[in-house]
Amino acid sequence: MKAYLPLKNYGFIFVAIMGISTWLAACTRLDVFEKNTVIPNNQWSFALQPSVDFVIADTTASYNVFIVLRHTDAYRYHNLWLNVGTQAPGDKTRFNTFELVLGTDATGWQGTGMDDIWEVRKLITNGPVRFNKAGNYRFTLAQIMRENPLPNIMSVGIRIEKAR
After folding, report:
1. What is the DSSP code (8-state) at residue 76?
2. I need a labelling partner for 13 at 20 to 30 A (CA). Which of 29, 81, 88, 140 fits?
3. How far is the C-alpha of 149 from the C-alpha of 48, rounded, in Å?
4. Are 68 and 121 in contact (CB under 8 A)?
5. What are phi and psi of 102, to 5 degrees?
6. What φ, ψ does residue 7 adopt, rounded to 5°?
7. Which residues contact 155 (CB under 8 A, 6 or more apart)?
8. DSSP of 7-61
9. Digit-coded pLDDT (tens) for 25-74
10. How far is CA 72 from the centre of its chain?
11. DSSP string covering 100-157, please?
């Protein structure tokens, strides 16, 4: 004869685990900012240059800055060339050219995928950076590939995480 635990004991354990998980999550502060722009019809033209505004209040902290890109499996290239503009409060926009490697023939696509959709997050700085001025910062993203419009790009954005 097998002994079974009453179902109500499992319910109590489940409720206790969920309650503790919720409490721990509420006590943890995530210092993350992310904003993505959907590319209309998955065709990124030169004319579309999404910009992301965010406010830095803590100039003593270090931050990691990422490009977030979502593309389909039908994207024809292994990389994407971007012109990334950065504008600090009261300054002019400064542009840097950045190559975003998306995959290789040997290893396939980088990032995470589901069905035919892939998302990649790439650090665009050499480690954590500090923002010297408090205030509003703006990042501008422009694709500079030879093909215009660039097909099979679904969204692009910026993710900023406070370094730990």
Report:
1. -
2. 29
3. 10
4. yes
5. -105, -20
6. -60, -30
7. 36, 37, 38, 39, 68, 69, 70
8. HHHHHHHHHHHHHHHHHHHHHPPP-EEEEEEEPGGGEE-TT---EEEEEE--SSS
9. 444 455 889 999 999 999 999 999 999 999 999 999 999 999 999 999 99
10. 16
11. EE-EETTTEE-SEEETTEEEEEEE-SSS-B--SS-EEEEEEEEE--SSSSEETEEEEE
Pair of tokens at residue 134:
């408090």
For residue 136, the one-letter residue type is: N
User: In this structure, what token pair is assigned to residue 4?
Assistant: 């079974």
Residue 119 CA to residue 154 CA, distance in Å, equals 9
- Of 69, 65, 74, the residue nearest 116 (C-alpha): 74
Tokens at 18, concatenated = 């969920």
Pairing relationship of beta strands 79-87 and 135-143 according to DSSP bridges? antiparallel
